[in-house]
Automatic annotation (TrEMBL):
Residues 9-313 form the FAD/NAD(P)-binding domain. It comes from the Bacteria. Keywords: FAD, Flavoprotein, Oxidoreductase. PANTHER family: APOPTOSIS-INDUCING FACTOR 1 (PTHR43557), RIESKE DOMAIN-CONTAINING PROTEIN-RELATED (PTHR43557:SF2). Its cofactor is FAD. Pfam families: Pyr_redox_2, Reductase_C. This is NADPH-dependent 2,4-dienoyl-CoA reductase/sulfur reductase-like enzyme. One of its GO terms (molecular function) is oxidoreductase activity, acting on NAD(P)H. Residues 336-408 form the Reductase C-terminal domain. One of its GO terms (cellular component) is cytoplasm. Residues 405-436 are annotated as: Disordered.
Length: 453
């Protein structure tokens, strides 16, 4: 490693999973310089997936979800302070407390925040919750412990569905409102969305699809909600699960290609400027990153997945302290999992990057299956329901751009013989964002103003 890369000042902005794994990797790669990690939350890095599962079920305290450190990172941890700006010319990070932190190289790993309820007065009602931080989970779990009469979940993506599942397991009455045609449809398409809808109703969920919540009602304390179809429901707890907002507001006017869909970067995690020029000293990793992937026609992917945060952080850290000839691309196949209503759902690839789906193994009726997704005649994703051991096989098919539909194997015969449309909806039709977004580059509006001058 050249001396100038081994030393110097590296700042990591974001003290969650990606930030921690990046810090560890930097030290493992031999970085001996100054390392600063900045995080808005006061807590050291912790694991978020348990918040909507074990914590809401009362099986784990929210303050016991800390992430184990694989090694000492010898860093200056600045927790409980928000980054408010990035000065690329002066090479400094601006903080909310007025301090400035200089850097030679910087990693942006600020992740996402929960999308808030749009009416601030209604959002302030006692009984209205979101779920993103450990404090959110602790407050919501305490309220569920008190036994509310009914919980309203707004949005039926993975977080909303997991919250509904936990509430039903507790024996609570639950209403789920979803603007789209079915739960999980934004991530898995219509076929598995129909399965999720059937499953929720079988577990006693009052599932209402194709409607929106037009108002949360109450006088200081939540009492109910009105829907777009004119109906109303009484509820003393509402969980707003409208998806995530990428933490890029603080990067406004800094000159990077940063916007609502994240910070654009190359496959080596180097951030782009607003003009599409790759930077040499600004890197990005985790949920906030938008990166190209050759398996998906080099469109820019934004992923809200645990595994992606780890692998991308490790690639970014490696590339920050290695010369061009030794840098690596981030080409891992996306993967995620969810546990809800007694089902173990796992996915590899990008189901939303598809035009057809086939039940390659198992049965929708028995809710034990592997659904394989294809786009333009090649395999792009696979989702297992209570049948995860086969996913490694389909991951290889994705990596090799195998023909879709896949050849039948030695497993049991599927209940359907041919592919059907995957019915992936336009995200505008959902009340929550998909956990995977594929987009071309969205020019920043400032670029137009610069051209005009």
């Amino acid at each position: 490693m050249p001396p100038d890369l081994r030393d110097g000042r590296i700042v990591i902005i974001g003290a969650s999973l990606a930030g921690l794994r990046a810090a560890e990797t930097l030290r493992e790669e031999g970085f001996a310089g100054s390392l600063t990690v900045i995080g808005e939350e006061r807590r050291p890095p912790y694991d978020r997936p348990p918040l909507s599962k074990q914590v809401l079920l009362g099986r784990m305290a929210a303050d016991l979800t800390g992430l184990p450190q694989r090694r000492e990172v010898d860093a200056d941890w600045k927790l409980g302070v928000r980054a408010t700006g990035l000065d690329l010319l002066g090479k400094r990070v601006l903080l909310g407390d007025g301090a400035e932190v200089p850097f030679d190289r910087v990693l942006i790993a600020t992740g996402t925040r929960a999308r808030p309820w749009p009416n601030s007065a209604e959002a302030a009602l006692d009984g209205v919750f979101s779920l993103r931080t450990s404090e959110d989970a602790a407050r919501l779990a305490k309220r569920l412990d008190a036994g509310p009469r009914r919980v309203l979940v707004i949005g039926a993506g993975f977080t909303g569905s997991e919250v509904a599942s936990a509430c039903r397991e507790r024996g609570l009455e639950v209403t789920v409102a979803e603007r789209g045609p079915a739960p999980l449809v934004g991530a898995l398409g219509g076929t598995l969305g129909e399965l999720a809808a059937r499953l929720q109703r079988a577990h006693g969920v009052d599932l209402r699809c194709g409607v929106t919540v037009t108002a949360l009602e109450g006088d200081g304390r939540l009492t109910g909600a009105r829907f777009s179809d004119g109906s109303r429901v009484d509820a003393d707890v509402a969980v707003v699960a409208l998806g995530a907002v990428r933490e890029t507001d603080w990067l406004a006017e800094c000159g990077l290609a940063a916007g609502p869909r994240g910070v654009a970067c190359d496959a080596g995690c180097r951030a782009f400027t607003m003009y599409g020029i790759v930077t040499d000293d600004v890197f990005v990793a985790g949920d906030v990153a938008r990166f190209p992937h050759p398996l998906f026609e080099y469109q820019l992917l934004s992923l809200e997945h645990w595994g992606n945060a780890v692998s991308q952080a490790e690639v970014a850290a490696h590339n920050m302290v290695n010369p061009e000839s030794r840098r690596m691309p981030h080409l891992a196949v996306p993967a995620f999992w969810s546990s809800q209503f007694g089902l173990n759902i796992k996915s590899v690839g990008v189901p939303t990057f598809s035009d057809q789906v086939v039940i390659a193994q198992g049965s929708l009726r028995e809710a034990r299956l592997v659904a394989v997704y294809g786009y333009r005649g090649r395999v792009t994703a696979a989702v297992s329901v209570n049948r995860a051991k086969w996913l490694e096989h389909y991951e290889r098919l994705i990596e090799t751009a195998a023909r879709f539909p896949p050849e039948p194997g030695a497993a049991d015969q599927p209940e359907t013989l041919g592919p059907v449309p995957s019915d992936v909806p336009d995200p505008k039709l959902l009340s929550h964002g998909p956990t995977v977004a594929l987009t071309g580059y969205l020019p920043d509006r400032r670029l137009t103003r610069v051209r005009d001058t």
